[in-house]
Amino acid sequence: MAKIFCVANQKGGVGKTTTTVNLAAGLAQLGQRVLMIDLDPQGNATMGSGVDKRQLELTVYDVLLESASIAEARVSSQKLVDAGCGYDVLGANRELAGAEVELVEVERREKRLRLAIEAVADQYDFVLIDCPPSLSMLTLNGLCCAHGVIVPMQCEYFALEGLTDLVNTIKQVHANLNKELAIIGLLRVMFDPRITLQLQVSEQLKQHFGDKVFNTVIPRNVRLAEAPSYGVPGVVFDPASKGAQAFVTFAGEMIERIKAM
Ligand code: ADP
Ligand code: MG
Prior knowledge:
Blueprint: E1 3-7, H1 16-29, E2 34-38, H2 44-47, H3 60-64, H4 70-73, E3 75-76, H5 78-82, E4 88-90, H6 99-103, H7 112-118, E5 126-130, H8 137-145, E6 148-153, H9 159-176, E7 182-191, H10 196-209, E8 213-219, H11 222-226, H12 234-237, H13 242-259
Parallel strand pairs: 1-5, 1-6, 2-4, 2-5, 6-7, 7-8
Antiparallel strand pairs: 3-4
Helix pairs in contact: 1-13, 7-8
The protein binds adenosine-5'-diphosphate and magnesium ion (MG).
Adenosine-5'-diphosphate binds next to helix 1, strand 7 and helix 11.
């Protein structure tokens, strides 16, 4: 049965999508069966996985509104398969922005994704969900089906402050909707060890959160930022780059972590 993880942080531009697609590719490279779900109407994780969001006939929107199953809506990119890093994609595009409003009216609205994943869970080792930069109904759907949340964060001054809202939301979802949910870990991303402040914040994180902080650190690396314009994760775009290697190491760390779950 698949282990399901949300990549969430209500701040934008902190590296959620980069983490989701590169972790997906890294896990696939290590032989894991992966489904990546894009829950952000921007569709960046879809495009960054080599899938053109404008050409999609079915997306996560149709799955949330129960007009399609995941088995019907998932696609994959041949480019990634050829690179030995293939994974399935349940894509998103702008249409998904409407789901927020449409779901308000329906029953068990926060459980829609969970029910859909249950039908395919035995086909995967990992399901990774790229969340939008908000604590919205879409993010709630993600949190309701996850075993754990991966929180990418930059080691900056306000990093800890921003975490409070997310931690509170996760506690509420845990108490009311999903007993299995926990923060599996904080992932330090875009890290630059030459910046003293980043080293300090990194230390503070470890003091506060202990072994909830992943051992792997993702460096700031331009190859990771360049990859999306080629429609592939950095792990595929430049496997020798420091950023790609860090994500493959992180994938290995995730495989170890789920053994203990
Ligand atoms: P989010 O999904 O949280 O909005 P993104 O993953 O889209 O964040 O990242 C924001 C920007 O930072 C993107 O332009 C991305 O390419 C860049 N970026 C992310 N991680 C790194 C990294 N480790 N090194 C350099 N650039 C990065
Ligand atoms: Mg994103």
